[in-house]
Specification:
- The chain starts with a strand and ends with a helix.
- Strand 9 and strand 10 form a beta hairpin.
- The longest helix is centred in the last third of the chain and has 25 residues.
- The protein is built from ten helices and eleven strands.
- Helices cover 43% and strands 16% of the residues.
- The strands form three sheets. It has a six-stranded parallel β-sheet. Strands 3-2-4 form a three-stranded parallel β-sheet, with helices on both faces. The protein has a two-stranded antiparallel sheet with strand order 9-10.
Length: 286
C-alpha cells in the first residue's frame, strides 16, 4: 500500500511555479496576479483565503485579498468583480465559496471574466473541460489528476466510481476521468446500493462530507482510494470520508486526510494563475 503524499507533491508543484514565475518576471516583466474575495466570516473560508495569500507570496505571485462583511449586497460584489475584471495587474479572480444566502452564486461566478476564472467554475471553462478542450480546470479535481500522473496510476480502461456529484468536485472529476478514457460511475445520496458499485471499482474517489462513509468491505483488494472529504470530528480531529485505518491494508494507493488531496488544491490554483498570466502575455504579444 502506497500513501499518496499530497503535501510533498504540492510543495514540488509550488517550486515548479516559483521557477516559472521568476522566468516570466525576468524575461517578460509580467508578474502573475491573483485576487481572492471573501464575503462573510466563515472561519474555514478565512483560513483557506489566508493560506492562498501566503502561498502566492511564497512563489512570487502578486496577491490581493478583498474581505467583505456578511451584509455586502450582490450588487456591491458584482461591482467589485467588474473592477477586478478590468484590472490589468490581475490574471486570476477567485470568489471563496460558500457565499451568504442572499447572494446568488451562479450570477457571481458568471460575472468573472472566463480568462481570469482560475477556479474553473465559469460555464465557459466547464463547457471546454467537458469537451476536452484547453480550459482552467477546477483546482481540486485537477490536483487529483496530477496525483494519478505523479504516481503512475493508469486510468485508461479502469472502472472508477466517483461518490458525490457536486459542481466543485464530483462533476468535474467525472469529466476529467472520462476524458482520460476511464469507465466512470457517479454515485450520489440517492444511489440505491452504493457498495454494489464501489466493490467493482478499480478506483474510488469520494467527496461527500460524511466521515468514514467508505469502509474496507466496500472496496476490492488493490483498489485506489482518493479521499477528497475533510471533516472535523467532535474531538477536533480532521478526518476523511473514507475510513483510512479500515481501508488502508486493502488498497494499492490511498490518500490520507489531512495531507492528501487538500494541499493539492492550492498548488493547482497557483498553476492556473501562472497559466492565466502566460495567456495574457500571448494575447498582448499578438
Amino acid at each position: 500500500m502506497v500513501i499518496l503524499d499530497g503535501k510533498a507533491l504540492s510543495e514540488k508543484i509550488k517550486e515548479e511555479v516559483k521557477v516559472e514565475v521568476s522566468e516570466l518576471v525576468n524575461t517578460k516583466q509580467i508578474t502573475p496576479g491573483l485576487a481572492v474575495v471573501l464575503v462573510g466570516n466563515d472561519p474555514a473560508s478565512a483560513t483557506y483565503v489566508n493560506s492562498k495569500h501566503k502561498s502566492c507570496e511564497a512563489v512570487g505571485i502578486y496577491s490581493e485579498v478583498h474581505t467583505k462583511d456578511e451584509s455586502t449586497t450582490q450588487e456591491e460584489l458584482l461591482a467589485l468583480i467588474e473592477e477586478m475584471n478590468n484590472n490589468p495587474k490581475l490574471d486570476g479572480i477567485l470568489v471563496q465559496l460558500p457565499l451568504p444566502k442572499h447572494i446568488d452564486t451562479t450570477t457571481v461566478l458568471e460575472a468573472i471574466n472566463p480568462l481570469k476564472d482560475v477556479d474553473g467554475f465559469h460555464p465557459y471553462n466547464v463547457g471546454r473541460m467537458v469537451s476536452n478542450l484547453d480550459a482552467f480546470l477546477p483546482a481540486t479535481p485537477f490536483g487529483v489528476m496530477r496525483m494519478f500522473e505523479e504516481y503512475g496510476i493508469e486510468l485508461s480502461g479502469k472502472n472508477v466510481v466517483v461518490i458525490g456529484s457536486s459542481d466543485i468536485v464530483g462533476k468535474p472529476m467525472a469529466s476529467l476521468l472520462i476524458n482520460a478514457k476511464a469507465t466512470v460511475t457517479v454515485c450520489n445520496s440517492r444511489t440505491k446500493d452504493l457498495k454494489a458499485h464501489t466493490k467493482e471499482a478499480d478506483i474510488v474517489v469520494i467527496a461527500v462530507g460524511v466521515p468514514h462513509l467508505l469502509k474496507a468491505d466496500m472496496i476490492k483488494d488493490g483498489a485506489v482510494v482518493i479521499d477528497v472529504g475533510i471533516n472535523r470530528l467532535d474531538t477536533g480531529k480532521l478526518t476523511g470520508d473514507a475510513d483510512f485505518e479500515d481501508c488502508k491494508d486493502k488498497c494499492s494507493f490511498i490518500t490520507p486526510v489531512p495531507g492528501g488531496v487538500g494541499p493539492m488544491t492550492i498548488g493547482m490554483l497557483l498553476k492556473n494563475t501562472l497559466k492565466a498570466a502566460k495567456l495574457r502575455d500571448k494575447r498582448e504579444s499578438k
